[in-house]
Amino acid sequence: MPPPETDSLIHDETGTQTLIGYVVDVGDPDGRGRCWLDIGPQHTNRHGVLHGGIATALLDNASGTTGSLTVDATGKAPFLTVTLTTQFIAPVSAGKRVTAMGRVTGGGRSILYIAADLVDEDGRLIASSTGVFKRVPKERLT
Question: Could you tell me if residue 29 is inside a domain?
């Protein structure tokens, strides 16, 4: 996959993004949020594969960003997770890049149903999720 345009990338904007080290891309022409992570040993569980919590965080972020892109081209409109169900399909080890991408499957003005897939650099499905996301005005977040 060619590298995306650099002006569509969001680096280290949140505490979680800084802690885990993933990159957010809001430049998909289809309006789908995407994030990726180069897996290091700090991202693995005691079995040496990507920790399920980190996989879930990537799916959650790709989904929330996808929701944001429905109303804001910068991907910064707040969409909060109401529910998220994750299915773990295959393990992936350190040294690989994984990419999560969301897609809106339904909803309306303030509630969206969003599915996401996490794949490795070979296109192998690692995990998937379905969730409900709610648009929240920024002033209600404080």
Answer: yes
pLDDT of 101-111, one tens digit each? 999 999 998 99
Residue 1 scores a pLDDT above 60: no
User: SS3 for 45-99, per residue?
Assistant: CCCCEECHHHHHHHHHHHHHHHHHHCCCCCCCCCEEEEEEEEEECCCCECCCEEE
Q: Is residue 111 part of a domain?
A: yes
Among 100, 128, 129, 119, residue whose Cα is nearest residue 22: 100
Residue 79 within a domain: yes
Sheet holding 125-135, edge to edge: 9-11, 23-25, 34-38, 97-107, 111-120, 125-135, 79-88
Which comes out higher in pLDDT, residue 117 or 2? 117
Q: Pick from 1, 2, 4: which is nearest to 33 by CA?
A: 4
Q: How many domains does the chain have?
A: 1
Per the domain annotation, does 1 fall within a domain? no
As given in the structure block, the two tokens for residue 18 are 């800084």
